[in-house]
Amino acid sequence: MPRPIHATIHTAALRHNLERARRAAPDARVWAVVKANAYGHGIERAFEGLRAADGFALLDLAEAERVRALGWRGPILLLEGVFEPRDLELCSRLGLWHAVHCDAQIDWLAAHKTQVPHRVFLKMNSGMNRLGFTPERYRAAWARLNALPQVDEISFMTHFSDADGQRGIAHQVHAFHRATQDLPGERSISNSAAILRHGGEADVRLDWVRAGIVLYGGAPDHPERTAADWELQPTMTLASRLIGVQQLQAGDTVGYGSRFTAEGPLTLGVVACGYADGYPRHCPTGTPVLVEGVRTRTVGRVSMDMLAVDLTPLPQAGIGAEVTLWGRAGSGAVLPIDEVAQAGGTIGYELMCALAPRVPVTALA
Ligand SMILES: *Cc1c(COP(=O)(O)O)cnc(C)c1O
Questions:
Q1: What angle do CA 227, 163, 282 make, to 5 degrees?
Q2: Which CATH number fits domain 12-216: 3.30.1330.60, 1.10.3290.10, 3.20.20.10, 3.40.50.1820?
């Protein structure tokens, strides 16, 4: 028998979350962002649940090829554009739309030989200071692109640094609109946080929204709002089983570094899941976990292949008992990935993306 750890991708939940994103940004077309192998879900496994999207957005050319190989004939957008001139050949061949964020990418396009002009998304750096032309340099970049025979339609995009938080998006929305106001073309500025929090505003949702974490059931602004608050369903369950039980007495310690000391008698379950499966080692004692659908806590340090849980609420649980590290238990009980991430000092995005290759994954209808 293989080690009992297993991940499940919930196709119906992906479909539900996509619909939820659509409802939040009425009339906008939706890019399903499937970068990083569909946030760790697997592009091929996630595709069925996301095929009602208007397009797929990603970074990696090999991932774009995988989406085309699934039979997708609609739009595919390379969010970072191309990385070297010859990538443009693949864009021509597969009909990929691509971001243009720097002068070098315009130079490459100008030198590119193609029969089919490319659809491009000109990226503005409106304050994130990662990729894109500043508002001052944006029009000059547009004029250069617009003069190229290799370029078909030009669309406009920018990315928010604070759509989930205190600083908000108003300054970036303003900069974007001011710099693009009389330029003809479609526009895309919203990520998941902006879709959920501002999708009702026409000057924010615009023509295309870029839905990432919302599709995978994570709350982009956790813990201010939870996935349940946003009516999102978990799309990934990481589950395993108890492979050992220990009876501790007062003074006994647990795991590497003896980071936990029992204050009295305690029944401990040992779970076949560790950091080599993608469970964060940073999660301290007290991180929430479900055993047979009942909420309890982890105890001691997470090791490579195992972690320990407190069985106080489930004295009957023995070897083979179901453990849900995140996602949905057999009983239907849900442990939001965001809560586990928060305990480990990170965000749900990172946990999904870090699901380890050694964990077998199946997609459920
Ligand atoms: C990853 C990404 C998104 C999606 O972000 P979420 O917060 O997951 O919705 C949108 N736009 C760009 C440019 C991205 O890189």
A1: 55
A2: 3.20.20.10
Question: Is the C-beta atom of 33 inside 6 A of ligand 1?
Answer: yes
Place of tokens 């909420």: 295
Dist. CA 114–CA 99, nearest whole Å: 17
Could you tell me the residue ranges of all domains in the chain? 12-216, 236-364
The overall average pLDDT reported for the chain is: 97
Task: Locate the ligand 1 atom nearest the alpha carbon of residue 191 and give its number.
Answer: 9
Percent of the chain whose pLDDT exceeds 90: 98
Q: Is the CB of 191 under 6 A from ligand 1?
A: yes
Task: List pLDDT tens digits, range 75-111.
Answer: 999 999 999 999 999 999 999 999 999 999 999 999 9
